[in-house]
Write a structure and sequence with these properties.
Blueprint (H helix, E strand, L loop, with lengths): L7 H17 L4 H25 L17 H20 L3 E2 L5 E3 H4 L21 E3 L4 H10 L5 E10 L13 E10 L6 H16 L5 E7 H10 L7 H8 L7 H11 L4 H11 L2 E2 L1 H8 L8 H19 L6 E4 L12 E7 L12 E5 L16 E6 L1 H11 L12 E5 L5 H13 L4 E3 L7 H11 L3 E5 L1 H6 L1 E6 L5 E5 L3 H10 L4
Parallel strand pairs: 1-4, 6-8, 12-13, 12-14
Antiparallel strand pairs: 2-3, 4-5, 5-11, 6-9, 7-8, 9-10, 10-11, 14-15, 15-16
Helix pairs in contact: 1-2, 3-6, 3-13, 7-12, 9-10, 11-12
Amino acid sequence: MADVGKSIADQIKEQGEVVRKLKAEKAGIDKITEEVSKLLALKAQQGSDKDEKAGGKFVLKTAKGTRDFNPRQMVIRQQAFDKITTCFKRHGAETIDTPVFELKEVLTGKYGEDSKLIYDLADQGGELLSLRYDLTVPFARFLAMNKVASIKRYQLGKVYRRDNPAMTKGRFREFFQCDFDIAGLTDPMIPDVECVRVVTEILDSLDLSEHVIKINHRKILDGLFEACGVPDTQFRTICSAVDKLDKSPWADVRREMTDEKGLDPEKADQIGQYVLRAGQDDLVEQLLADTKLCASKSAIEGLEALKLFFRYAELYGVKKRVKFDMSLARGLDYYTGIIYEAVLTNQNPEEGVGSIAGGGRYDNLVALFDPKAKAVPCVGVSIGIERILAILENREANLKMRTVETQVYVAAAQKNLLEDRMKICAELWDIGIKTEMSYKANPKLLGQLQTCEEQGIPWAIIIGQSELEKGVVKLRNVVSRHEEEIERTKLTDVLKEKLSAQVV
């Protein structure tokens, strides 16, 4: 029962301490859940009290971790999406789509420790549902459900994560992913290298050529943990700790392994001797000569796979963009082979957006959904488009940008010419020319021409009573302000010619 002698804020502070203490003591999950529920109830009460004091009004804003996009931002986004889609199609991919929510059991247990970030929905109609966390697990469900054994697919869609957002760094709770995946039996490493090639092509097309793609292999990680004496049951949880090395120093990661996850300090130190190393195929050769590591069959298989990967990467012209980084772990449980992550190498401090693409091989995920546990080998990559767009928006903040694609504006120099303007608009729309006019019946000519200049519309058709009587119209180049008379019957042909010769 709430303490009536204390403010809600004080009660929240005290209850928060209770929860933190229980977590530090590693109390039972039921007890922690009970106390967290009390804390949430107090916070809800605090929010209710604030609403009452404000007369029931609320702050008009987007939900935490989401945002609106204005026309300028949408131009930048659409241009990026177009370049990404063009690359996917260049590599022969076809597209699919899946629902933004799935049965909860489809998503449960596929993401390791990140599963806590899944958004669960209220029970509706007897189905327990969750918003999709990524596009990969729904894709695997799609393959199993439709018995698809081979496909090269791309998909652009929104995903949802109950994460702590950092809006300025492109980390949201609702965001787009752009995925490229190759499913089906193939010879080793051929599609895996193509995924890296796809990433480099996309980043180059977006003027983000200063990037590196870090790679590792899950079998190398498993072999490393095995060689260092980590129990099988701790492989994934220790892997999750290693995955934080891109954001945290080794001392913090080691502390998490030993203090929070109970790993023997000596074993943690042995892991540290490996996971801080990076290189290219030279490092692969060094590790193949490491007797301790190569006592593990898993490690040898992973290293041999990367040796082949580097050979193919050179043939595809991407070897210089690749770095073998033993700290790369990627915490998602479903990866089985090569894993990769793209980062910028020339980031400004304010552009510290972390990885901008990532992916890997997941050969066993589809089998989890198939009644006969039939496996479909898969490898893929996801482009972190929101993080990329955060950079592009920042870089293009002061650039002038068109937010409409209008090619021609139909203007009137006199009153009572609305219907004539409408006829010309309809005629131009019929042949596919992007055309606009004022919605006022009798607009002023100066205002119409100002609209053309403000929106960057290249051509204006100006009509007047005398021109219509002579069977002509004036065609104005908005940039040069040069005008010429065009026969009304030849207007469409002249416009087609001028527009074809001009990049709008």
